[in-house]
Amino acid sequence: MSSTAGQVIRCKAAVSWEAGKPLVIEEVEVAPPQKDEVRLKILFTSLCHTNVYFWEAKGQNPVFPRIFGHEAGGIVESVGEGVTDLTPGDHVLPFFTGECGECVHCKSQESNMCDLLRINTDRGVMIGDGKSRFSIKGQPIYHFLGTSTFSEYTVVHVGCVAKINPSAPLDIVCLLSCEFSTGFGAAYNVAKPTKGSTVAVFGLGAVGLAAAEGARVSGASRIIGVDRNLNRFQEG
Predict the structure, then answer these.
(1) What's the pLDDT tens digit per position in 109-135?
(2) Mean pLDDT computed over 181-196
């Protein structure tokens, strides 16, 4: 049992107070996990353009103040009531599209749009009680995509956490939380290129490179990468 289990943790987080304004490193209070929740110590997090889009808050409902971040790797610090498949010390990846394991979508081989834990960009609170686990001097700070990994500690629903091999380097596999899974899945599960086919991938960032890998694994014999940024070819 963690020495901090059941207690409020004070830690640093990058807080977005207003749309388009610089994030501010603040000391936040992170409440203990409640039923079906897990509190994670985030060790590595990366920046996905989705964070920038919702930080700018152009064309969507602004929810502020907020802690962004959804692509990360960390360790379970403590678990809430009802959590049996994770224990403190487990290495995990948080995901913004979770699985309750019980709804028709979770039991289907064709969809992962869980009725309970599907992506919701407007929700800034936990599903269980409609409250945030973050606060600063009593003021609630809202969650983002149920993950909020721009914080040293965060609380997520257990259905949005995947346990991984502890030998996997978290600074690398954290990309599986979004970028790699998005690109690889788009090719392998959606486009489904046939063996021997030719595939063109437009944009060679992390998502594009993952799409190329998905096409390769699917059996594509020729993969053409297209990008207006010539530096991408040199970096690759």
Answers:
(1) 877 788 888 888 889 999 999 999 999
(2) 92
Residue 21 DSSP one-character state: S
Alpha carbons 45 and 10: distance in angstroms, whole number: 19
Helices within the chain (DSSP H only) = 49-56, 170-173, 179-185, 206-218, 231-235
Q: Which residue, chain included where needed, has tokens 């799409």?
A: 211
Instruction: Find, among 107, 147, 102, the residue nearest to 124 by Cα.
Output: 147
pLDDT surpassing 70 at residue 235: no
Is-contact 212 180, C-beta < 8 A? no
Average the pLDDT over 142-151 and give the result.
Answer: 95
Average pLDDT over residues 186-205: 93
User: Cα separation of 207 and 231, whole Å?
Assistant: 16
pTM of the model: 0.88
The span from the CA of 101 to the CA of 12, in Å, is 33
Average pLDDT over residues 181-187: 91
Average pLDDT on 18-45 reads 96
**Cis preceding linkage at 140, omega within 30:** no
Q: How many CB atoms lie within 10 A of CB 232?
A: 16
Write down the residue that tokens 């009802």 correspond to: 82
Alpha carbons 65 and 197: distance in angstroms, whole number: 48
Put the strands of the sheet holding 9-15 in their side by side order: 9-15, 24-30, 134-136, 139-141
Please provide residue 39's backbone torsions phi and psi, each rounded to the nearest 5 degrees: -105, 130
193 vs 179: CA distance, rounded Å: 20
